[in-house]
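User: Could you go from structure to sequence for me? I need the amino acid at each position, not a summary. Structure tokens:
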């Protein structure tokens, strides 16, 4: 076998080292720069993607915080509106109760005035009827016609007696 001869073997090793050096030089000159450039570009894109993802995450967190703040503000505003509605409802209830109380008092006072007027009218009617009855009874008893002065005196006496009896009972 010729490749295992020492003379041939040492020259083969020399040419293998020379061709490896040439191949390494050619790869370093023409192949490695585009490969390294592609790797650098890929690293840059990955780094930019990671930075963009970080920015998006930070933006999402910021928006989430804003959303939470808006939700809390809306909840507080809703609670305030509910409290205002409760206060208005209570105010309306109090106002209606006050108006109804005033109306009931007005009706009660009006009824009391009406009752008092009817009582006075009834007393006046009773007095007139009593006076007329007393005059008729007196005429029958005296069997004569009374003049105006007698009528007046008898009416006043009868009225005094009836009023005294009425106020006692």
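Assistant: Here is the amino acid at each position, in order:
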């Amino acid at each position: 076998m010729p490749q295992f001869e020492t003379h041939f073997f040492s020259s083969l090793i020399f040419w293998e080292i020379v061709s490896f050096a040439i191949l390494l030089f050619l790869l370093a000159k023409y192949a490695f720069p585009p490969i390294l450039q592609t790797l650098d570009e890929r690293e840059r894109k990955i780094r930019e993607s990671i930075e963009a993802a970080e920015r998006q995450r930070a933006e999402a967190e910021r928006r989430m915080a804003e959303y939470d703040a808006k939700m809390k503000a809306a909840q507080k505003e809703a609670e305030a509106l509910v409290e205002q509605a409760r206060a208005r409802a209570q105010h309306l209830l109090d106002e209606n109760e006050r108006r109804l109380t005033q109306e009931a008092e007005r009706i009660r006072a009006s009824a009391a005035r009406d009752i008092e007027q009817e009582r006075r009218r009834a007393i006046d009617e009773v007095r007139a009827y009593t006076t007329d009855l007393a005059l008729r009874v007196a005429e029958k008893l005296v069997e004569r016609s009374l003049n105006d002065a007698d009528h007046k005196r008898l009416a006043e006496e009868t009225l005094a007696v009836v009023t005294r009896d009425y106020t006692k009972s």
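One structural detail worth keeping in mind: Residues 2-168 form one domain.
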